[in-house]
Amino acid sequence: MADELRLKIRNLEEADYPQLKELMDIVYDDIGGAWPKHTISQLIKDFPEGQLCLVDHEKIIGVALAARVDYHRFSNPHTYDDLIGKRTTILNDPDGDAMYGLDVLIHPDFRGFRLGRRLYETRKDLCRQKNLRAILAGGRIPNYYKYVDQMKPYEYLKAVKKREIYDPILTFQLSNDFQVKRLLTKYLPEDEKSQGYGTLLEWNNIFYNPDVQMLDQRKSQVRIGAVQWQMRQVSSVEELLQQVEYFVDALSNYKSDFALFPEFFNAPLMGLYHQQAQQMEAIRFLAGYTERFRDEMLQMAVSYNINIITGSMPLLVGDLLYNVSYLCRRDGTLEMQSKIHITPHERRDWVIQGGNELRVFDTDAGRIGILICYDVEFPELGRLLAAEDMDILFVPYWTDTKNGYLRVRHCAQARAIENECYVVICGSCGNLPAVESLDVQYSQSAVFSPSDFAFPHDAVMSETTPNTEMLMFSDLDLDRLKIIRSEGSVNNLKDRRVDLYEVKHLKFLPT
To answer: Rounded distance, CA 199 to CA 321, Å?
Structure first.
């Protein structure tokens, strides 16, 4: 039979009523059959796009009817009669911010082809196109009468959700991404099979955007620029800042929203210290330039209209030394993230302290987090950031050997998968023979994505040539993150067993 089908979905027309009545009388023989003709005619007039029919060789074999409603009114307890006005007129609200699914039915002779799913997907597409908040539906539970002596209605819902019991309507709705919000009593009293009970179901439109000014809307397409930085000897601070501005200018010319620099990118200045063998004194000498670099890079962010993540630099606070990264927004505001986990080398030779505050930062191109090098090797930090709706994680790093680099790379890829976000890593190459403990570097900067069909097959959005100074660009689609978090092949964030474990950080600073 399948090879004989010629299927098409179109909007229902008033002339279709005889076929619609025949179909509804067959499917709804237990609850009164078809809607009256005037009900359907008015529904088509009030909300024509919401009335769908599936035809095979011009014969109607499936129907999906819907009305627009106020979300706050119908996402709370109600009955079917609350949708019905005088003379069985569906109360369509032309200003409603949600769609209410009235009926979805398939002719019995055409069941088994998953045709109902097509109507549901078309309805979801319409919800997105109309920028409606959600699809709501009051669902029958027609197999409940078989279990009424064995379990309460809410127990029946749990059993259906666990697939211990099959319900022809609820099982189908759950498989189409609808969530049960609550049990409705006396929803359809004449429905004896459901014992009058119903379920309030909801499918959320993850792209819903309430009425806002265009200038306030979040960007969904974001361009990332990163500098795989060549370590080289310099003779002055001005020379190094000139190199920084050169790259900021180049990234800005390519319309990048972000510029990312590596960890300790300004370390060549340590070569200017007269006693380079004294590592602790040399790193504190470098810290003396941090405020100048911070201020000048903030000015560049404004002048070149680009958000800059300043890699990392040592910062002296009193007598304590920290490894910090700055977010210089192009609107002139400034944020700071300290490195939390300090490597043995940093702790032993430079006496650097670990920070204890973690933040997600709002920007005009998504919500971002910053983890400096070693920090990305601790999954708890990425999970805490993901819990605060982070879109992009920036990881400036410095690694001297390939095995050190691979630790950063592999852990960054894991963070992208488990937290369903983009991760950008950026390091330096070249050598600094005159600087103790910073004589060699290994780097291959990259951008990683979650691993699913919407992204590259290897989950690598972009990467540089190893150990070569160059710029890296990658265009990121933030809406794809919304889709994967809701409808991906796997749902790492949603499927966490928070009943068994959780990650807490008492000093997490919300935005």
So the answer is: 59
Same domain membership, residue 388 and residue 446: yes
> 45 lies in a domain?
yes
Instruction: Give residue 252's Cα distance to chain centre.
Output: 26
Is 188 part of a structural domain of the chain?
Answer: yes
Based on the domain organization, do 61 and 172 belong to the same domain? yes
Whether 210 is covered by a domain: the verdict is no
Annotated catalytic residue 373 = yes
Smallest CA-to-CA distance from 474 within 490, 455, 457, 497 is with 455
**339 is an active site residue:** yes
Pairing verdict, β 59-69 and 52-56: antiparallel
| Angle between helix 402-419 and 379-386 (nearest 10) | 30
Catalytic pick among 53, 127, 263, 328 = 263
Query: How much is the pTM?
Result: 0.74
The 3-state secondary structure of 48-83 reads HHHCEEEEECCEEEEEEEEEEECHHHHCCCCCHHHH
- C-alpha dist (Å) from residue 49 to 9, 212, 216, 260, 399: 12, 24, 29, 46, 57
Spatial contact of 441 and 231, defined as CB atoms under 8 Å apart: yes
161 catalytic per annotation:
no
Note whether 435 and 267 are within 8 A (CB).
yes
Tell whether 453 is covered by a domain: yes
- Mean pLDDT per block of 10 residues along the chain (511 residues) reads 77 96 91 90 96 93 95 88 86 94 91 86 92 92 93 93 92 89 88 91 88 58 95 92 95 94 93 73 92 94 92 94 96 94 92 94 95 96 94 96 96 96 96 75 96 93 96 94 87 87 71 49
- Active-site residue (options: 373, 411, 421, 426): 373
276-306 residues labelled b (16+ CB within 10 A) or e (exposed): beebeebbbbbbebbeebbeebbebbeebeb
* Domain extent at residue 401: 217-487
